[in-house]
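Lab manual, section 2.4: Encoding a predicted structure.

Procedure: take the sequence of the chain (253 residues), apply the prediction step described in section 2.3, and record the output as structure tokens. A sample record is shown.
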Amino acid sequence: MNVSDLVYGAYERRLMGSLDRDRIPRHVGVMLDGNRRWAAAQGMSSARGHQAGAEKIEDFLGWCDEVGVEVVTLWLLSTDNLARPADELDPLLRIIEDTVTDLASHGTWRLHPVGALDLLPATTAEQLKAAEDATSSRTGLLVNIAVGYGGRREVVDAVRALIADAAAKGLSLDELAGEVDVEHIAEHLYTAGQPDPDLVIRTSGEQRLSGFLLWQSAHSEFYFCEAYWPDFRKVDFLRALRSYAARGRRFGA
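Recorded output:
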């Protein structure tokens, strides 16, 4: 072990020891950004960057377990990404399928796909559903796998589901209009029944949400990290938690 490793380890332990355990976010959303740029900077293919990013996920979930986070949402593929050329999209989908299978074999994590699964290839959708079924009885960290996800699409799907429920009950449009409110829409989101994200992290230096958890993040705290996702370290995560704990949350007040 060299000197830099010793210094890094000492800093990581100091950050961990300084965390306010009463101010750990229950739900952390993560925009795993920068895989392609990480690969390009090293003269590698996009697929190699996505694979490197996928290999980081298990470490990250372990860090979340360690500090007591209850829910994590990982944005792996947006609805916009589905328009990428097949020579890039197909390897990415295979990586996602393999990653979900590996995470499901962990033994404690519960996996829940969030997104428009009907837009995905059948094999990918089936893998996601199989992982959810295989882990549904577990009581550990809940991991939302956002694939084929778009915030606007989620709200549209929630409204459609709300209308379909009303029609099944025989409600008129006037009756439905009288019932629609924030709570009713929230009950039909992909994350229904879960706490909204307290903290949203985006890697790669980009400072925009791009529609991630558009409805749920209304009162979230945001942390933007310069590191590309494959380079995201435990100290980066701990810094995000430290920043979150230092903020005075007003929930729109």
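Check your result against the sample. The chain has one domain: 29-45+65-201+209-245.
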